[in-house]
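Review form for a predicted model. The reviewer records the input and the model, then writes brief findings.
Reviewer: anonymous (R2)
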Amino acid sequence: MIIIDKKLTPVFVATSFAAACFGQSVHAAEYDIYGKAEVQIANTDNGVMRYAKKGTQIDAPFSRIGVKGQHVLTDSLKAVFKYEVQVKGFEHDDTDEPFSARNTYLGLAGNFGEVVVGRNDTRFKYSEGKVDNFNETQADIAQLLPGQDRLGDTITYSSKSYAGAQLSLTYALKDDSANNEAGYAATLIYGDRGLKNKNYYVAISHIDSLNNINASRIVGAWQKNDLQLGAIYQHSESVDGTKSGNGYVLSASYTIDKWQPKLQFASDDSTIRQSTKGSQWTAGVDYLFDKQTTAYLFYTDLDLQQQTDSSLALGLKYKF
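Model under review:
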C-alpha cells in the first residue's frame, strides 16, 4: 500500500471531510496502482467471433490500468473506490480513443459489508469465478453465454463472509436501465472464488431484467493439487420472452512445472448472445514465468448454425 496525504485528490479531501464530521482524526488514504499489459498475435479465419478480426492481427486484449483503495472514516466505516480504464493505445486503429471505461465506483464499507455505486461487473458475471480458462480472449465464455455484463449506474452490495458463504447484489434503477426497467442480480457464493484458500467454489446466481435478460446459473470449481475443473450451467431468457435456452461450460487445466495445458467447451442455444445456437471448443497451453508474467498459445473453434470461425493466438501477459 502507498500512503498519501489527503490533499492530493478531491476524493481524499471529501472522505477526510466526512471523517471530520464523525469526530475522528484525519487519516491518510491507502491505494494500489495496478493493471494488465497484454499483447497478442492472432490469425482468425472469418472474423465472426467477438473480440477478433479476420486475418492476422496484433491486439492488446483488455489491457488496463487502475487505482483502487480505501480511506478510513471512523473505527467502523471507510470509503472505498476504484477507477479503472481499458488501454487500447497499443493498436494502430485505436489511437483516437485509447481508453474506455471499466469498473469505476465509489462507496462505503463496514461491518455491514460493502456498498458501491458506479460502473461494475454485475454479480451475475462475477459468479463465474475462475471457471473461464480463456477469460478476456476470443475464447471467452461471453462469446456464447448471455449475462457477462459490466454496467454503469448500478449499486453493488457485497456482504461479509459467514461460514464460507457470501451474498452479493447488483441493482439498476429503472431510469438508468438499458430496457427502462429496474433490474437486479443476486449471487450466493460458498467456498473460495479464487481457489487459493479453499479448493472448492460453488455459486448460485440469478439476474432479472438487467441488460434485457433474465437468467439463472449454477457454477462450480474444484482444485486438487495441480488439476482444476470447472463447470457452469445456465438458463437464459430475453425480457420480452421471444428467446430462451440453455447453456453450459466445461473447463479443465493441469499444471506441470511451469506449463499449464488447458481445455474448454461452451455451448448455448438461447440465441441471445449470438443469432443462432452455437458451440465453441478451445485448447491451449500457458507458460508461467512467475505469478505476474504468462506466455500462452491457444486455438479456438466457434461453430454456429450458419457460420463457423476459428482463431490461433500467441500472446504475452504481464500483471502489475
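Findings: The chain has one domain: 35-319.
Further findings: The CA atoms of residues 44 and 55 lie 5 Å apart.
Recommendation: see findings above.
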